[in-house]
Every structure is written in structure tokens, then in C-alpha cells.
Amino acid sequence: MPSDESAPLLPLQPPHESEWKIRPSSWFLVDLMVLSCGISLTFVGLVGAQQILTTLFPVVGPIALGVTYSTFAIACLTAPAVIRSVGLKAAIAIQLFCITLWLATNLRPSIELAVPASLLIGFFAGSFWVAVPTYITIISGRYDQLWALEADLGESDISTSPDAIEVGKSVSILSTLVATLRLTTTDARVVLMIPLFCYVGTEQGFFFSLFGSRLVAPVFGDAMVGTISIGFGVTNMVASLLLGRLTDAYGWPGPLAAGLIAHAGSLCVLMAWKVFDVLVIENNAKGIAVLYAIAGAWGFGDAAFNSVISTMLGMFFPPDVPKSSTEAAFATMRLWSSLFTGICFFGLAPLRRSMSDAGSIAVELFVPLGMIVLASAGLVVLWLRRQTPVALDSTSSPATQMSPKSVGLFQGIFFGIFMSTFITGDALTGSILGPGKNPPQERINDLVYVFSSSAFGGFIIIALFLRSHTSGASGSIGRDVVSETRVN
Fold first, then answer.
1. DSSP labels, 56-81
2. Between 139 and 8, residue with greater pLDDT
3. What was the pLDDT predicted at 269?
4. Concatenated DSSP letters for 377-433?
5. Cα distances (angstroms) measured from residue 203 to each of 66, 71, 192, 309
6. Calpha distance 90→13 (Å, rounded)
7. Strand partners for 485
8. Which of 149, 205, 257, 454 has the CA that lies 20 to 30 A from 105?
């Protein structure tokens, strides 16, 4: 018998609380914690290595990251096919192993090593970032169902519908490509959110390529890049934990509006400093406080986008509704965001060569601000349409409005734990590299060894997590069927 793709660490039985030390539904929270910690441990290395590449290797770094995110964008089109071939959890484990290999190439950064390794992690990043939110959405729904039973809400029992969600069912790459592109052009909710998806990719590229290397480092030194970025990670982590639950309780408009306002305000402060010369930020306590505030505001906005957008897509496209395009929805989001992140890394190099420093920085600040205006307009229209049919075609069903009630809680917990990678990675980068513009290669290698060990440890945790969920005589990994469990 194939195992349930969303099964918890212990098999579920009809709930009799006297036989359990904790609620049966709590095992889905255990799953979430194990998944989040394993992924975070691996991404500590990835985040730190990105800081090293963009700060100390201005040629190799942007090219490597540009290749990664461009490949990521293309891979999102085929991500549903990869996931249905190997399974949700196997898709996650494969990417974590590829990240470990990629980190090893940073011992001697070069174009010859960086490009193939970046192509590898870019390709599997597509299926990874579709599999993670899809899996979290599934287990949040199972958590809600069991919680309702445990609380005796109505005359309920658990039954398995023949309309199963077959994550392991093989589909062609062409069919998933068509499904993803069709969703991008026919579903009004997705169409209206595309400007926001594009801005999310742009703001992430901005933080990694501009904030550290061109704003912080020239004034405060390379060692302060990681230290000030800790403000980004701390705020992002705390905000993710709060905003997901707030989205469950009060809806998405408030958290997303707050995130966009935080980013717009940060960009205006930076323009006052670098473009209009009405604000002076120097290497003193006041200057450090201002940049910490900007990094914190940027982290708050990034938390809103990550946790709230994932929650929105889980609500709009719940996986337990027949014909709901959950994987295609997450693939569409990652397609646009990674595409624009790749454009940032590839497009900034020629821009900076063709313009003065002041001119290129002005462009890099005005473009995100303009995209915030477009994203806000799309969200306003989406909010105004909330009482109208949600799709441009006639195939949408009112059932697509249903969603797990705890999807925001689960997405927020994941991104909250995940964002601890920025705190750890940035702290290690700043402490090991130390002061100076050109730290010795031996010190860089020490940092890469630490990051590689962390990444491999995370991969081992996820591999064991995957094995604990896999059963059956065939021993196949991840080729499981997710049964649709309903509360009747």
C-alpha cells in the first residue's frame, strides 16, 4: 500500500485522547517543525554563501545568482510534472542535496564551477518551492479536519473519498506547462497578483545585490553587511509568525498593505539619502540605527509577501478540492518572482557599467517603487472583486473558495523558522570574515566549510524525515498518493 504523502510521523487512528499523550492533530505540527528545521539548517549555508558571492566576488557572484534564478524561473513551468514523478518530499530532499553540492563549489569560486552548479540548484529549486507550500497547505488541511473531530464539532467522522489527489501520478511536462500558463492567463486572481509576484522577485534581488554591496559596504565596510542584515532576519522571522495567523483571522489585505507600505517607506528614505541628498547616513551610531531600521522594515515586508501570498494561494486553490490547481498556482508565483530576481542579477551589471554610480542607484530605487504602485493597484482590484466570480472563464466553482482554516498559521510558522537562516548565516558571515575589504582565502574557506556542514546536516534530517513517511513493500520514495480526507 502506498503511504499518504501528508501522513504524520505516527499513523493516525480514530482519535481517542485517553490513548494519546498529545492530540493526534498535533503530529502535523511535529511534521511542520521537522520540515522547517531541516530546510532552515540547509539554507543557512545558502544565504551566507550568497552574501559572500555578492560582496567579495562582484563578477562571479551576480552571474552565479542570475543563472540560478533564471533557471529557477524556467523550472517552475515543469515543477508540477517533477513533483508528480518523485513526490512532494523527495522533491524537497533532492534540492537540499543539490545545495550542499553547490556550496562545495564556493571553495574556489569560478565561472567554470559556478555556472553548472547554479544550473543544478536552479532547476530543482522550481520543484522545491512548489512542493514546500503545497505540502504545508495539505497538512494544514488535515490538521483542521482532525482538530474539528477532536473538538466534537458536529456529527463528524473521517472518510476517504475516491476522488484522491494523486501526487505520484505521472503527467507529461507539456500538460503541466499548459496548465501553468493557462492559469496565468485565465484566472483573474492570479492575473491580478502577477505584479505582486514580480515585485517580490525584484525586492529580493534588490536586497541581495544592492543593499549590502552598494549601500552598506561602502559606508560601514564588508563586515557590517551580515551584521546589519540580521535586523532583516529578526524582523522577518517574528513578522512571519504573526502575519500568517492574522491572515487566517482577518484576511490578506491588511498584512499585504502593511508590507507594501514598509517597503515604500524604506525606498523613500534611501532615495532621500542617495538620490536627493537631503539625508546623511554616516558610519556612526545614528547611521547604523537608520540602516537597521531599513533592514527591519524590509524584513517585515518580505515576511508579509512570503507568508501571506502562500496563504492566499492555499486559500484560493485548496488541494482537497477536485481540479484545484494548487501546484500550478505556486508554480506561477515562483515563475514570476524568480524571473524578476534573475533579471535583477543579470540586468544590474550592464546598467552599472553604462551609468554613473549615482544614476544606477537612482534607477535601482525608482524601479521597485514603481512596481509597488502596480502591485498595489492589482491588489485593490482583487479586493474589490471579492464578491464577484473569481475567474475569467466559466470553469471556476464556488468550491474553490474553500480552504484550510490554519493554512496561514502553518505557512507563518514555516517562514518564521526559515527566516532564522538569515540571522544565523549573516552572523556567521560577519564574525568569520571579520573586518577588512579582502579577507584571506583561508578564512573564506572556513566559512564555506561551516556552511557546507550545516547544509548537509539539514539534508540528513529531511532524508530521515522522508524515510519515516515511506512504507510499503516496494520501498519507493515519495511516489505516494494523498487521499482526500473529508469531515462529513
1. H-TTHHHHHHHHHHHHHHHHHTTHHH
2. 139
3. 92
4. HHHHHHHHTTTS-S-SSS---GGGG---TTHHHHHHHHHHHHTHHHHHHHHHHHHHH
5. 14, 18, 18, 15
6. 25
7. 160
8. 205
Pick from 94, 87, 160: nearest CA to 327:
87
In angstroms, the CA 183 to CA 400 distance is 14
Q: Would residue 281 be called left, alpha or beta, if left means φ above 0 and alpha means ψ between -120 and 50 degrees?
A: beta
Cα(263)–Cα(367) distance, rounded to whole angstroms?
12
CB atoms under 10 Å from CB of 468, counted, come to 16
> Cα(71)–Cα(123) distance, rounded to whole angstroms?
6
Residues present in the chain in total: 488
At 160-194, the pLDDT tens digits run: 333 333 444 555 566 667 777 778 788 889 999 99
Q: What is the phi-psi region of residue 56: left when phi exceeds 0, alpha when psi lies from -120 to 50, beta otherwise?
A: alpha
Cell numbers representing residue 337 in the block: 518572482
**Angstrom distance (rounded) from CA 134 to CA 142:** 13
Measured N-to-C along each axis, helices 441-469 and 26-56 cross at an angle, to the nearest 10 degrees, of 160
Q: How confident is the model at residue 376 (pLDDT cuts 50, 70, 90)?
A: very high
At 95-136, the pLDDT tens digits run 888 888 887 776 676 777 778 888 888 888 888 999 999 889
Q: Is the pLDDT of residue 310 over 70?
A: yes
DSSP 8-state assignment for residue 83: H
CB 168 within 8 A of CB 478: yes
Bridge partners of 214?
A: none
The per-residue pLDDT for 176 is 67
Instruction: Fill in the amino acid letter for 55.
Output: T
The HSE-up count of residue 252 (CA atoms within 13 Å, CB side) is: 25
